[in-house]
């Protein structure tokens, strides 16, 4: 596992459930501003059914319009099936294809309209598609820290699924607290075990959090060895299944503040971060 910090900024996650329409030109302006900050990756769009996520139906137009010249930031898009993976892979700008695989049967059905077994077959095909087009598949282990549907869950169960995915050839797994219920004990146990038994896999943290628990969750993951974090400016976004309206994405500014406090070196351009942060406040209103 890489020892350097990777920050994955997630405008896609921030936008997808936003209550007001965001014009394509505004998305392009915002993503262009994020490309100048120094993030490692931008989760910038999705190739899923426009009926399911109407806000991101213009992802193709956004990808064609953004300016990636002169930036080292790579692009990631989310897909839900092989068709979406084929569409995403056709864009040379796209480096990573993200696929949400839930270890809750109920959530997998709700999220992708497929069972876990069906989704596992889709995942195998996505590995082939990614390899064919020179992309890397990132699997988001949805409901990685529990679920609200009374499906079985335990920290060991989450680790077992990470082993299964790694055995299939998955190289990057982002453990996802989909509904904001992770606690430091489970975070520590899952990351510690996964990093110990699967050192060839890069593990990330995709936390949906509340203002009163994001610092303890960041700290638990970092101390356990996690060096890849997903976040979104101002904490916009989150999961529509979370009943708590205060639950959103991990705020990027909180993540950066924590990392600077512990003197972790970052490649963030603060002036460009401030400009993007101000723009986020204008777009998400």
Number of strands: 9
What is the spatial order of strands in the main beta sheet?
1-2-3-4-5-6-7-8
Radius of gyration of CA atoms, rounded to a whole number? 17 Å
**CATH superfamily annotation:** Aldolase class I
- Quickly give the CATH architecture: Alpha-Beta Barrel
Major sheet size, sense and barrel closure = 8 strands, parallel, barrel
Could you say which structural class the secondary elements and strand pairing correspond to? Answer: alpha/beta
What name does the CATH topology carry? TIM Barrel
Question: Under the CATH scheme, which class?
Answer: Alpha Beta
Mean pLDDT: 94
Return the domain count. Answer: 1
Percent range for helical residues? 40-55%
Strand content: 15-25%
Shape: globular
Helical run tally: 11
**SSE pattern, N- to C-terminal:** EHHEHEHEHHEHEHEHEEHH
Task: State the distance separating the first and last CA atoms.
Answer: 39 Å
Low-pLDDT regions: none
Describe this structure in words.
With 285 residues, the chain is an alpha/beta fold. The protein has helices at 11-15, 24-34, 59-65, 82-89, 105-112, 116-133, 155-168, 184-197, 214-224, 252-261, 270-283; strands spanning 6-9, 41-47, 74-79, 94-102, 136-142, 172-177, 202-209, 228-231, 248-249. The protein has one domain (6-283): TIM Barrel (Alpha-Beta Barrel). The protein has eleven helices and nine strands. Strand 6, helix 8 and strand 7 (202-209) form a beta-alpha-beta unit. The N and C termini lie far apart (39 Å).
């Amino acid at each position: 596992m890489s020892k350097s910090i990777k920050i994955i900024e997630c405008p896609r996650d921030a936008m997808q459930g936003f209550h007001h329409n965001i014009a394509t030109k505004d998305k392009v302006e915002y993503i262009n501003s994020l490309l100048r900050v120094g993030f490692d990756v931008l989760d910038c769009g999705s190739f899923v059914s426009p009926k399911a996520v109407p806000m991101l139906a213009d992802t193709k137009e956004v990808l064609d319009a953004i300016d990636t010249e002169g930036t080292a930031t790579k692009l990631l898009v989310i897909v839900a099936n092989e068709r979406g993976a084929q569409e995403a892979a056709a864009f040379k700008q796209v480096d990573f294809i993200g696929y949400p695989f839930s270890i809750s049967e109920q959530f997998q059905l709700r999220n992708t309209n497929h069972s876990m077994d069906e989704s596992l077959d889709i995942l195998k095909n996505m590995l082939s598609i990614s390899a064919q087009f020179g992309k890397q598949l990132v699997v988001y282990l949805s409901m990685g820290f529990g679920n609200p549907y009374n499906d079985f869950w335990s920290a060991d169960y989450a680790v077992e699924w990470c082993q299964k995915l790694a055995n299939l050839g998955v190289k990057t797994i982002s453990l996802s607290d989909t509904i904001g219920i992770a606690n430091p004990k489970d975070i520590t146990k899952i990351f510690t075990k996964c990093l110990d038994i699967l050192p060839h896999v890069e593990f990330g943290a995709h936390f949906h959090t509340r203002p009163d628990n994001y610092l303890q969750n960041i700290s638990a993951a970092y101390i356990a060895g996690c060096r890849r974090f997903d976040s979104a400016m101002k904490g916009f976004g989150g999961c529509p299944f979370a009943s708590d309206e205060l639950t959103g994405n991990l705020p990027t500014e909180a993540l950066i503040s924590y990392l600077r406090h512990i003197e972790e070196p970052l490649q963030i351009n603060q002036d460009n971060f401030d400009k993007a942060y101000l723009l986020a406040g204008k777009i998400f209103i």
